[in-house]
């Protein structure tokens, strides 16, 4: 087309091409000016109704006359193809200028785009596709919005591809508003949401919502709150957080209601930022010099007059200082210095992500090492020491700092720091999700499937003290703290559909009346501190907000305080004493969840990648036909997903309402059996692998259960419960019978993997004093044999039954199985060393490879903690700056 003349427009060159057509630079031969022609795709020009609708939209857009909107000059048709005549903008799109725009220019561009949108919205025109590709920045710095009306045309076309239902508005993945994705009515507030996404990206360099594919991205836009810009760029003023996050509210009614208001807010933000910079410059100006000579006084007379106020202020300040300061006089109540330091942890005992505690007086710190051993670090010493016999997580100090409570193995325990042996407080059915020792000698703790509970520190039976709000989808209360009145508590509420703990709620509740208030939406691990602030974690940042513990209300905007404190999603490493000593994980400890890929590990020790998309995969199981993988993807609520190997397709099988874990295939490959909480204790369920039909419950127990394996004939399922191995009979349709214990002893047993012929079961037991792998005849439980030597974990048969595999540390061991009149097991031999980043989960059909999950990020190993004294002053100073 270049060189041709259409109507009176001579086409000079092609400027670009996209999903909405081809743009050419052209010369208007009548008016001798340069313009742009946009030819729309043929499929958008076939319907007369669509044409009419688009022409009406174009007429409305042509009525716009604003410096920040690219003008539409005309709309015509050539060879049954519509084209738009537009103002030629000599510049680059925001996408093309990515990485070249500074913070100040980003705010300027944001103001201009908001002004352009405001002008359009006042005339009833909605853009529907605000994104960096549709914003041009001219060489003189003027930003202009392009392509008004085209998104509506694309939606109107009967042949256009749709991401949403018929009649919905289509935008661009990543920039669409929640109402666009869900197919709801769209108005000008949808543009404001897309603008917020674009401004967020312009300032931070990344989108507020992320997803490996469009479906995941759409889910986040509808369900996951955007993080504050300051969590990515700590130097950004929280006022900008407020402006952007109000644009990104999911509910259009709660969102900023007009682009004009956005513009006003950004202009105010720009002015205030400039004033702050000017105040810093003024404070740094050099002192006024005054000459002693009359000539000097005369030559500086005008300067003296102009700066008389500054000089007078300086003299008054000097007099004031002289009146109150004497070098040899002791200063009363002098502020203590803020000291930042680090605690180096023992090289062989790095911290785990399962909680730390700082004593009320700030003199002691306790943490859980990766081995589960609790370590005590005295702040006046340089080394940490293990607390004898104390194995557990989520430690908490008694109010006098002399005792420590912690979650031991299926129980709450306590230990005196004076050196006595640990004591049991009460048994637990599952792990405690955070603990707090109250002044009246009770231990308040969170649960994984109910409200908060408490028990006397002297021992007893726990009682539930908070109830889940089912209407809000709550499935557990965690990380409690009793407030100073001794009658109210704050805690984190986990909800059924959370994808991340950054979406959790921090709740304040009066225990006597049950009155409760959600004080933080989008954060976890709330902690009240005496400076009058509430701390909470979001992402890898510690935030604070003003909090009134009597009224249970927060006020003002949240302010980022420190980078650090978080290890992974929902895992916190933050401890604060009553006198302002804070200890937390360094920011480098936060590595996120999505750090694993899927592959095959062969018998020679070579890794072969299978699926490189990084997610938080765990507990993978290969289908009986070897074509599919059922696997668990961890998040705030874990779910079971299905990976189709031949198609390379990953799809979701379960959907929230607590964790769904430990997938196991039925013998015929029709179903996946798994453990599911459903907001309560994890029992066993099954569902068709393709997601069709209903989810069926197979067991009902007050104890958590974990499925292990199914016999090849499909008649029995083995599962773990209460450190014993149980059997669940199944009929031909997978309907469950009555479960019964199979291996139930005082020792701890786990596993229970059937041999292919169903005649043997391999399991792990610590009956000898250490974990070893045993086999026993099934179903009569005869002929038990120990097959591991020197320790063993797991135990699974090859698909042909000729080998048995297990782990011993990082060594992967194999035992030959010889079938005859009797079954013989050989001496174990080492097959290969399992790399630190690899975990093995299943065996290929031919036994030549092992299904593996691979940590692409180095496993977390935190060797230090950051410590700050007078931390309450640090918190207050952050608010003083704002």
Unreliable stretches (pLDDT < 50, length at least 5) are: 153-170, 277-333
Strands of the widest sheet, in order across it, are 1-2-3-4-6-5
Q: What's the total helix number?
A: 12
Number-wise, the strands total 60
**SS-based structural class?**
alpha+beta
Helix share bin: 10-25%
Strand content: 35-45%
Q: Looking at the structure, what is the overall shape? A: globular
How big is the Rg?
33 Å
Describe the structure.
With 882 residues, the protein is an alpha+beta fold. Strands 1-2-3-4-6-5 form a 6-stranded antiparallel beta sheet, with helices on one face. Strands 53, 54, 55, 56 and 57 form a 5-stranded antiparallel beta sheet that branches. Strand 42 (671-676) and strand 43 form a beta hairpin. The longest helix has 25 residues, at 259-283. Mean pLDDT is 83; it is low at 153-170 and 277-333.
How is this structure best summarized?
With 882 residues, the protein is of the alpha+beta class. It has twelve helices and 60 strands.
Protein topology:
Elements: E1 5-6, E2 9-18, E3 21-28, E4 33-39, H1 48-62, E5 72-78, E6 81-87, E7 91-93, H2 103-122, E8 135-138, E9 143-145, H3 150-156, H4 178-182, H5 188-204, H6 214-223, H7 238-247, H8 259-283, H9 294-299, H10 301-306, H11 308-324, E10 340-344, E11 351-358, E12 364-369, E13 373-378, E14 384-391, E15 393-397, E16 403-408, E17 411-416, E18 423-427, E19 435-437, E20 442-445, E21 453-456, E22 463-464, E23 474-482, E24 488-495, E25 505-510, E26 516-521, E27 524-529, E28 533-538, E29 541-548, E30 553-563, E31 566-568, E32 571-572, E33 574-576, E34 582-584, E35 596-602, E36 607-615, E37 617-622, E38 628-633, E39 639-644, E40 649-652, E41 660-665, E42 671-676, E43 683-688, E44 696-697, E45 705-710, E46 716-721, E47 724-729, E48 740-743, E49 749-754, E50 760-765, E51 772-777, E52 785-786, E53 793-797, E54 803-808, E55 811-819, E56 823-825, E57 829-833, E58 838-843, E59 849-855, E60 864-868, H12 871-880
Antiparallel strand pairs: 1-2, 2-3, 3-4, 4-6, 5-6, 7-8, 8-9, 10-60, 11-12, 12-13, 13-14, 15-16, 16-17, 17-18, 19-20, 20-21, 21-22, 23-24, 24-25, 25-26, 27-28, 28-29, 29-30, 31-32, 33-34, 34-60, 35-36, 35-59, 37-38, 38-39, 39-40, 41-42, 42-43, 43-44, 45-46, 46-47, 47-48, 49-50, 50-51, 51-52, ...
Helix pairs in contact: 1-3, 2-5, 2-8, 5-7, 7-8
